[in-house]
Amino acid sequence: MAMLEYIRTESLMKKYNIPTPAQFLAKSADEAVRYAKIIGYPVVIKVVSKEIIHKTEMKGVITNIENEKELVSSYSKMLRDVKRVKKARIDGILVQKFIRGYETIVGGKMDFQFGPVILFGGGGIFAEVMRDVSLRICPINKKEAMDMIMETKISRILKGYRGRDKAYIKGIADVLVKVCKMMQKERISELDINPLIVTTNRVSAVDVRVII
C-alpha cells in the first residue's frame, strides 16, 4: 500500500466534485507569500510528505496565520520542527485558506469481507479518541447518508445545539455519497477526509489522505 501524493489526491477530489479550500503547494517561503496573497489571509500551512501521515503530531500544521510576517516566520519554523521530529522527504508546504467551522470526518475503507465501507463522525485531532462514528456498506443514497449523520453524537451540535449555528448537513450527506462512489470506482484501500469542515452553507475537505 502507498499514500497518494498531494497532486493526485487533489485531482481525485475534483473528479468527484468534493469541495476543497483554496490552496497551493509552495516550494519556498517566497512562493508561500505569493500564494497567500492570492488566497487571502488568514491561511493555514501544512507539510506535504508521503512519509508523514499525522501532520499535527509531526508539528506539520500551523493555523490562523494572519499576515506575511507571520507566514514567513511560520514557514521557517515548520521546516525546522518537522526535520527535528522526523527525517522525511518533504514535497512542499501547502498554503490553504483557513476556514472556521465544525470538524467532522468522512472515511472509506476496502473491507476484505464486505467490500467498500463508509464512515462518518466527529473529526479533528481527537477523532480516534472520541470514536463518535457511524458506518455503512457502500453504496448509499442521500437518505442513508442522512441516517448515518443522525446516528452520531455530533449531529446534535450540527443541528444547532443551544443556539449555535446550524451546519450544512445536506452538504455532508452529499460528500458521503460521492466518497462511496469513489470507493467503488477507484483503486483505493483507505481514504480519510479529516477534517471535513462544515459551516452554515458549505463543506470543505480540508485534509485528505488516500492510500492505494
The termini sit apart by 6 Å
Radius of gyration: 17 Å
Largest sheet: 6 strands, antiparallel
Overall SS class: alpha+beta
| Average residue-wise pLDDT | 92
Unreliable stretches (pLDDT < 50, length at least 5) are: none
Shape: globular
Number of helix segments? 7
Order of helices and strands: HEHEEHEEEHEHHHEEE
Oligomerization state:
single chain
Fraction of residues in H or I helices = 25-40%
Number of DSSP-assigned strands: 10
Describe the structure.
The chain has 212 residues and is an alpha+beta fold. Helices cover 35% and strands 28% of the residues. It has seven helices and ten strands. The protein has helices at residues 6-15, 29-39, 68-85, 127-130, 142-150, 154-158, 169-185; strands at residues 23-26, 43-48, 61-65, 92-97, 102-111, 115-122, 133-137, 190-198, 203-205, 208-211. Strands 5, 6, 7, 8, 9 and 10 form a six-stranded antiparallel beta sheet that branches. Strand 8 (190-198) and strand 9 (203-205) form a beta hairpin. The longest helix has 18 residues, at 68-85. It is globular and about 45 Å long. The model has no long low-confidence stretch (mean pLDDT 92).
